[in-house]
Design brief:
The protein is α+β, with helices and mostly antiparallel strands and 339 residues long. Helix content is 34%, strand content 10%. It binds cobalamin and iron/sulfur cluster (SF4) (2 copies).
Length: 339
């Protein structure tokens, strides 16, 4: 039994309704066709992935989802708005509340449950960020928005304040979207000029090694000297190229799952001097746990030096005695900046 002749065509409108009741705000459908490899391969060849070695692995799967799910026919692109407020914070907006991976996985599980109940026999593969799936490309193909010059995926509804995921199915749907035929950036280049490290090396191309998002979240080694002065108010992630974007000027407040937690209201000085107990109270369950206790205090020390915060001298002097090499190195650099 079984075989391609038995494939059902799924009703896109019904799938969309199921995805929305699972909590996804934007839903679109793309044919699971291979992605032309040029942009990814050029990006990797230029070394723009820095130490993200996993980006250079499983390239065949990234470019062809049938390698992840045999017989793949459809990719459902899914997006959730996460914007909450314009309160200043040293933490990027997407990371101020509960870890979005957990939220997206919960919603994905709910969608999978209802799909299996209504359409038994359809197989799926779900991706939330870490899988070898090019989530922005699928969101473009599914007509949810466009990739703008700042390298972010931008929608009409929520600007770029969305996180993405994708669900691959081995069945076709009855209506696929067209990619939007528009370039909302036009001649604008505000984000390119605003990036403090010139990490937007060409339109829509980010050199991760220069990007504060990478340096504050992913780099657990030494932060290059030339990037340190840009840390300023940034302890985890970076929103500068999104904050300045005219397409982001009418954000929509997200639901409670993305509500900021108390850590987002802490000052850079407090984060630099936080105790292990404070870390344990504020950080677990948020994306900041990726940087860890030492990584966050290292970042905060860089930020204090970068912003010439003279009042931070006592906390930085205390960090000179820290058991973590990285923290000591950052405190030493910061104190030198304050001289
Ligand atoms: C590697 C990575 C990074 C790197 C590199 C950034 C980058 N722009 O690639 C670093 C660590 C710097 C980073 C930073 C951030 N990231 Co990030 N990151 C990723 C990850 C894991 C892979 C992205 C990737 O493949 N990059 C490689 C380049 C080559 O591909 P690309 O930019 O996706 O695609 C471009 C081209 O390749 C081209 N393209 C190529 N082939 C094709 C084919 C077709 C048909 C089409 C239409 C287009 C196309 O389309 C794009 C336009 O040029 C994704 C998750 C995922 N699994 O996709 C999250 C992801 C892109 N990141 C996300 C977020 C939230 C961020 C930050 C905003 C976090 C923060 N506040 O600090 C910043 C934004 C920095 C920026 N300006 O882009 C979100 C995207 C949100 C959004 N609205 O865009 C994602 C999707 C995670 C998620 N699941 O939500 N990230
Ligand atoms: S996230 Fe920050 S560092 Fe990275 S490209 Fe945007 S403005 Fe530049
Ligand atoms: S700031 Fe301007 S160039 Fe940059 S993404 Fe927004 S509209 Fe495009």
């Amino acid at each position: 039994m079984g075989g391609p002749e038995e494939l059902v065509t799924l009703p896109a409108a019904r799938l969309s309704a199921l995805a929305k009741s699972a909590g996804f705000e934007l839903v679109g459908f793309a044919k699971a066709e291979p992605i032309p490899g040029e942009a990814l391969l050029d990006w990797l060849a230029a070394g723009h992935h820095a130490d993200l070695d996993w980006m250079a692995q499983r390239v065949d799967e990234r470019l062809d989802v049938t390698r992840l799910l045999p017989g793949a026919r459809t990719v459902i692109a899914l997006a959730c708005n996460y914007w909450h407020s314009d309160e200043p914070s040293p933490v990027a907006r997407y990371a101020r509340g509960r870890d979005y991976h957990a939220t997206m996985r919960d919603r994905m599980r709910a969608l999978r449950r209802s799909l299996r109940a209504e359409f038994p026999g359809v197989n799926d593969y779900g991706s939330v960020d870490a899988s070898p799936v090019m989530e922005k490309v699928w969101a473009v193909r599914a007509g949810l928005g466009t990739v703008t010059k700042n390298g972010c995926f931008t929608t009409h509804e929520f600007g770029s304040w969305v996180v993405l995921s994708a669900m691959i199915l081995d069945a076709p749907v009855d209506a696929y979207a067209q990619a939007l035929d528009e370039d909302p950036c036009g001649r604008c280049r505000i984000c390119i000029d605003a990036c403090p490290t010139s990490a937007i090396v060409a339109d829509r191309v980010i050199d991760a090694g220069l990007c504060l998002s990478y340096q504050t979240i992913e780099n657990d080694e030494l932060v290059p000297e030339n990037v340190r002065p840009a840390f300023q108010e940034t302890v985890f992630g970076c929103d500068i190229c999104q904050d300045v974007c005219p397409l982001n000027m009418t954000p929509v407040k997200a639901g409670t799952r993305f509500e900021p937690r108390s850590l987002a209201a802490q000052s850079v000085r407090t984060l630099a001097g936080m105790t292990r107990a404070e870390f344990d109270a504020w950080v677990p369950g948020t994306p900041l746990s990726r940087a860890g206790y030492d990584g966050l205090r290292r970042n905060a020390a860089f930020a204090l030096g970068a912003s010439h915060d003279h009042g931070a001298r006592p906390v930085l002097e205390k960090l000179l005695l820290d058991p973590s090499e990285r923290v000591v190195e950052a405190a030493r650099w910061a104190l030198k900046r304050l001289e």
